[in-house]
Amino acid sequence: MRVGNVTSPLLLRHSFDSGPRSSAVALTCGFQPACYLVCMTEARITPPNRNRRLLWIGILGALLVAGLFLVFQALNENTQFFENPSDVVAEGFESRSDVFKIGGLVKDDTVVTQGLTTRFLIDDFERDMAHDLHVTYTGALPDLFREGQGVVVSGRLTSPTHFQAVEVLAKHDENYQPVIDYRDGEKAPRS
Amino acid sequence: MNILSNIGKLISYLANPTRFLRFSRFATPISGWSALVLISVGLIISLFISPPAVEHGQAVRIMYVHVPAAWCAMAAYTGIAIASLVSFVWRHNLADLVAKSLALPGAAFTFLALVTGSLWGRPAWGTWWQWDGRMTSVLVLLFIYIGYMAIWNIVSDRRQAARLAAILAMVGWLNIPIIKFSVNWWNTLHQPATISEPGAPGLPLELLTPLLLMFLGYTALLAWFALRGTEAELATLKRQRKAQSAPAKITIEDVPS
């Protein structure tokens, strides 16, 4: 019997431990109402310590999940890697910081290259845009930068319709195609 | 319910060290050899035989070492969490050993997933690292693994170490669904899962075959690590118990001068 062995209340050692099954021990654990409830509900089911531990894990687990849910609710926008272009062009948009990221599709037939400077329109992955959003970027582009492909641009808005990017990342989708596509009956490489 | 009760029966059957050793005597070599064969064949197909992909070119081969590593990282952690629950609630001592021996391979797989993911990110996205939901949550998983192993190493009392480690393992498991669903809940740079349901398009057979082989090979390797590690832990424990129960020998160093 290790009733006296109350070393660390943080560990809930005495309430979890395989101590005697009387409620007197449970009451020493500092969570009297809960322990009392456990002692009442466990009745004469054997072994009671096991059920008490299971109940504790259930209660604390549920509390943790609820807490985590609230944390992510509160963080909401801060957990997003990028803004949607449709939100950026929507009325009343305010970015959380001066420099931020926008993720969307490079609109077809809009890429214009002048030396190292690239200009294109960015489209939303899903929703319609209130108006066009122009992106300008000077520098090397990732290999997967293509028209109609996903892109994440980091930079600042210079006007409601213009975004000056300092970094361009490619965002590809989850579909992969072998170069040799036997299903179409063709064996020539497709690119 | 039937499956659950069968798993429960299996766990209580294997909780006895003698029966576990009888089981591992054939399960360990089976998992070890199948890991060796599957990974060898899988690597040859992944690296030499399978075709490159349209957008990604040759870099698509990184996927075959990356995706199974990430899967094993999460599977090992889930294994630790389940073993910890069994150890914590039912006090099956063997479950502690299983959990403990899953930690290092799990951490290694997490590290491998992070490194190969970084290697994928450079050619595919144009960056080695970004703080998006998927990458950050996997990095957190690595830190949890390190913390878990640290508890086992720092706390000298075995029983207390087992309980503390089990609490961390169970709380830390909340990170696993976060990793899994991060790409669905939030905007991330990482793409969502390709194989979200059986028969989902997105990975034709030429690319699916090497991935599946590597997936099975890695899983067998993880099983081998777990079984081999548990056997080793059991042997260590046995030796310690023997040393404790042996009559104390007083050596010359023990005598205060």
Description:
- The complex is a heterodimer of chains A (191) and B (257).
- With 191 residues, chain A is α+β, with helices and mostly antiparallel strands.
- Chain A has helices at residues 13-16, 23-27, 32-42, 48-75, 85-89; strands at residues 100-106, 112-114, 117-123, 134-138, 150-159, 162-171.
- A five-stranded mixed β-barrel of chain A has the order 1-3-4-6-5.
- In chain B, helix 3 (62-90) packs across helix 6 (158-172), helix 3 packs parallel to helix 8 (205-245) and helix 4 (93-125) packs antiparallel against helix 5 (133-154).
- The longest helix of chain B is centred in the C-terminal third of the chain and has 41 residues, at 205-245.
- Helix content of chain B is 77%, strand content 0%.
- The model of chain B has no long low-confidence stretch (mean pLDDT 91).
- Chain B: Belongs to the CcmC/CycZ/HelC family.
- Chain B: Residues 12-190 form the Cytochrome c assembly protein domain.
- Chain B: It is found in: Cell inner membrane; Membrane.
- Chain B: One of its GO terms (molecular function) is heme transmembrane transporter activity.
